[in-house]
Design a protein that fits this description.
Layout (H helix, E strand, L loop, with lengths): L1 H5 L6 E2 L5 E8 L4 H7 L5 E5 L13 H15 L3 E5 L26 H7 L1 H14 L4 E6 L5 H20 L9 E6 L2 H5 L1 H5 L4 E4 L1 H9 L17 H16 L3 E4 L10 H7 L3 E4 L1 H11 L4 H11 L5 H13 L1
Helix pairs in contact: 3-5, 5-6, 11-13
Bound molecules: phosphoenolpyruvate (PEP) and magnesium ion.
Length: 323
């Protein structure tokens, strides 16, 4: 089994009817990149940049960040690298910043909200990213967007920093894609309004499920509500994919669901372009995808969306896979 999977390391991810998708890795630390490549990652679909800020006593400088981003881009050697800007707050604290205590941290000033409220800290990260952009295939992604104003403000700061760097004579790539995570239900259900303002979406199901079900993703007594295959989630995923495709944008998924063997056939059928997951799941996902017919799963996904419970959908997928 394992040896069969190893054979797929350098293979593309193509369905039996010739539909190609990208299987990418989620990473935190720079050391994870080597493992991603060994497991056949075709790109980095989520670089959780907050790990550069954690386990230390001060903010990382622009230079430190630049070196980390440059290293990742060079190591991936032209393959796409989606770097997510700082996603702090929620369950991830930075003790040295002494963030104010909030009653509901997951509903609080986390991620992009925090960055927009602390623009100097955000500008430092954006400058480091822009400077690193000439060293590979960088895509910048903003987390926890809820309304368009946040996206506009983030893009405005990015444009200002780009302009400043160019005036200083520092090279910046002119084809950096800029996208957002879809992890707040407001964005999922109005994805058509966001699509024209982004280059890509990446669906963050870990948070999207938490916020849709109103169930803390860390609370074990609520784990029964964590249902990736619930019709509500699948319908939102479909809305996001359809909106992106209608606007000619690509759409990925970087939540745990992207590597879930029961979800992958449906996601392939719905037309997801990029699946980003833990490195350890990539080869099994590739084996599965190369055994599936995309157009057939497109029809099966439509059928699955009519079921009322995730258990029924899971059973339906498994039955179809056994045929
Ligand atoms: C997500 O929310 O699905 C996601 C990928 O981000 P994180 O798990 O880092 O919150
Ligand atoms: Mg998230």
């Amino acid at each position: 089994k394992q040896a069969n999977l190893r054979k797929l390391v350098h293979e593309p991810s193509i369905s039996t009817d010739g539909h190609r998708v990208e299987l990418a890795a989620n990473i935190g630390k720079l050391e994870d990149i080597e493992r991603a490549l060994q497991n056949g990652a075709e790109g980095i679909g989520l670089f959780r940049s907050e790990f550069l800020y954690m386990s230390r006593n001060t903010l990382p400088t622009e230079e430190e960040q630049f070196n980390s981003y440059k290293y990742a881009l060079e190591k991936m050697n032209g393959k796409p690298v989606v770097i997510r800007t700082l996603d702090i707050g929620g369950d991830k604290d930075l003790p040295y910043l002494q963030l104010p205590k909030e009653d509901n941290p997951f509903l609080g000033q986390r991620a992009l909200r925090f960055c927009l409220a602390n623009p100097e800290l955000f500008r430092t990260q954006l400058r480091a990213l822009l400077r690193a952009s000439v060293h590979g295939n960088l895509k910048i992604m903003f987390p926890m967007v809820a309304v368009l104003e946040e996206l506009f403000e983030a893009k405005h700061l990015l444009a200002e920093e780009r302009q400043r760097l160019l005036e200083e004579g520092i090279a910046v790539s002119d084809h950096i894609e800029v996208g957002i995570m879809v992890e707040v239900p407001s964005v999922a259900v109005s994805a058509d309004l966001f699509a024209q303002h982004v280059d890509f979406f990446s669906i963050g199901t870990n948070d999207l499920i938490q916020y849709t079900m109103a169930a803390d993703r860390m609370n074990k007594s609520l784990s029964y509500l964590y249902q990736p295959l619930h019709p509500a989630i699948l319908r939102m995923v479909k809305m996001v994919i359809d909106a992106a495709r209608q606007h000619g944008k690509w759409v990925g998924m970087c939540g745990e669901m992207a590597g879930d063997q029961n979800a992958v056939p449906l996601l392939l059928g719905l037309g997801l372009h990029e699946f980003s997951m833990s490195s350890s799941s990539i080869l099994a996902a590739r084996e599965l995808i190369t055994s599936l017919d995309q157009s057939q799963w497109s029809e099966l996904a439509e059928q699955a969306l009519q079921f009322t419970h995730s258990a029924a959908i899971t059973q339906f997928v498994q039955q179809q896979l056994q045929r």
